[in-house]
Amino acid sequence: MNISSKLKLIVVLTVFEISITLLSVFEISKGAQFHQLNLLHLKYISQFSDNILALENKIQLDVLETKRVITDIRQQPIDCIKKINFINVFIMRQIGTYSAIDICHEDIKQANRALLAVASFENQQITREQLLSQLKEFENIFILHSQQFEKPVSDTVSFLMRTMIPIIIIISMFNIISIGYMSKSISSSIRKAINLLERNSDDKNLSEDIDKHVSGELQTLLLAARERLANEMLVAEVNQKLEKLVDQRTESLTQANAELAQFAYRASHDLKAPLSSSKLLTRFIVEDIQSGLLTSAIEDAQKIHGQMEKLEDLVVSILSLTEIDSLDGNVTEIELIPVIDDIQQRLSSVIELHKDAINCHVCLEHPFISDKVRVVQILENLISNAFKYRDEDKVEKPYVKVSLSEKTDSYQLSVQDNGIGIPMNRHNEVFQMFKRFHPKISFGSGLGLAIVKKHVDYLNGTILMQTSELGTHFKINIPKQVS
Asked: Would you list the domain boundaries of the chain?
């Protein structure tokens, strides 16, 4: 096999591995989407139950609202079916979880029947008692389907995790071995040719030796190099570049696979926890409603709301992390004070902040020019963390001080707070994914500082952290850019 064929094979193997990896991540993340749709399904079932309860209590039925709720219940299985592709169908048929799709079709059918029943009541074709009986039947069917849907979806995701990750690891190891072998083969061929030239640099029979010991493209290269008197330098350069390229690819693939395995495990674990908890609480709510314990049902519903907020925060953080690579660079002049004002206004909607909670100081001789989207996300994550982890025991109010100055070739961005800080023994974990240092205070996603670090890296900058009992101080160095 000649050199170009070996290089093409290396590219093909690399592309194949990346494709399998991306397919695996997409299919595994699809399981989380199905769980989220099922949670929405449960939410609308709960609203449907409220309408039934109102009907039982002789309250006039809001027909339009009931139809809307039933339509919303029907929409979740429709969305699930739209997300199913032929690969999912094949896998689910092989492992016996295709029942999830059957459940979706049946749910759509029952929702359509429920809409017909409401329409019949609206047209006075059935009585109130008949409608109530039918709606209760549909309610039980929807709840049962929602419970039955979880297991095949969980089983499918588990199967993908058990099979795809080992497959990716096996493919990666095969690629590493194959690339190493081809690199060694290419290097060996080139070194053999160089040694041949060194031994026969003044020999008139050099061409015969090349024909005898070297073949393919390398033979043509050596003969041409001999005619131009530069073959040693050319071969050495090609060899060096090939070895460097192979080493970089091998190191990159190994690191990417390790990060993917860790990310998939932690993400699936953190996504599953609130889903499982909410599923259990939903069953408690149904039991409490059936037993007439509305206060207990409300408390459980509030717990579900908290779990959903936690899940939403995690999903948004994961999406933010995965979208970092695809953000288009928008290098422009940035006015920092309006940016800070916008951030404070957004945070004030979820966190109670006093008027002077954020202080901004800018000292520049030239305009601040950088990627505005990334700078805003860096500041919003750091400022949001500062107020989430404020120190309630301190007499002074929680605050954040933001400052911007410049050096000859860079900007210095500083974010300082008076919060509770980060434990000294965990400083080396600060910018790692899924690291939570104060879970009793705030149930964050553990991705905020990882997102900050990734944005700083994309700006070719550096970030340093100092923390103590007085608070935390982040110092960010951003190289200057030309707009």
From this structure: 3-176+252-324, 328-479
Q: Which residues contact 459 (CB under 8 A, 6 or more apart)?
A: 370, 371, 374, 375, 478, 479
Q: Which residue matches tokens 């190493």?
A: 180
One-letter amino acid of 387: F
CATH class of the domain at 328-479: alpha beta
- How far, in Å, CA of 194 to CA of 290, rounded? 86
Nearest to 322 by CA among 84, 83, 55, 32: 32
In tens digits, the chain (483 residues) has pLDDT values of: 566 676 677 777 777 778 777 776 777 777 777 878 888 888 888 988 888 888 888 787 788 888 999 999 999 889 888 888 888 888 888 888 888 889 999 999 999 999 999 999 888 898 888 988 998 898 899 899 888 888 888 888 787 777 777 877 887 787 788 777 767 766 666 666 666 666 654 555 666 666 666 666 565 665 665 565 455 666 677 778 878 877 777 776 666 565 555 555 455 545 555 666 677 768 778 877 888 777 877 877 776 766 566 555 556 555 555 555 555 667 888 888 888 888 888 777 667 777 778 889 988 888 888 888 888 888 888 888 888 877 777 767 888 999 999 888 899 999 998 887 777 766 676 777 655 555 555 555 567 788 888 888 888 899 998 888 788 889 999 998 754
3-state secondary structure of 333: strand
The SS3 of residue 394 is coil
- Whole-model pTM: value is 0.39
Proportion of the chain in helix, strand, coil states, percent, rounded to 5 = 70, 10, 20
